[in-house]
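Entry 14. Structure prediction run on the chain below.
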Amino acid sequence: MQLLNDDYFMQQALKEAQLAYDSDEVPVGAVVVMNNKIIARAHNQVELLNDSTAHAEILALTTAYSSLGAKYLPEATLYVTLEPCIMCCGAIYWGKIGRIVFGASDEKNGYRRLTQEQWPFHPKAELVNGVLENECAFLMKSFFRSKR
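Output returned:
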């Protein structure tokens, strides 16, 4: 079996982000992967659900927990197109997600704006950033440019 890489799974998260974009939502997408297989996927649905917590990460994690019947995912990798906000970091922390991979940085609302000194994820978690960063950032910039 061929192991798929971070670029492949981020491409899948980008497909979710495009669905958000097409629905006039902030274009953030996420997928949860275990054993080289996507177990959950989601995109922002804040406007659709009229719920400020309906971020891609939260929705993807909720789907993963539900499908596995588990409340912790230490063996999972979360791929998300944008640096998680502090709310999503809390959800990622409490889910004990083992690996977090994000694409574009978010200087305005990302977790690093508030937690420069503290690690917001589970102590054993691994973080990878900048995967397909340009593609992820382009989608966000295009969305907000269209709003101006």
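The first strand starts at residue 29 and ends at 34.
Filed with the rest of this week's runs.
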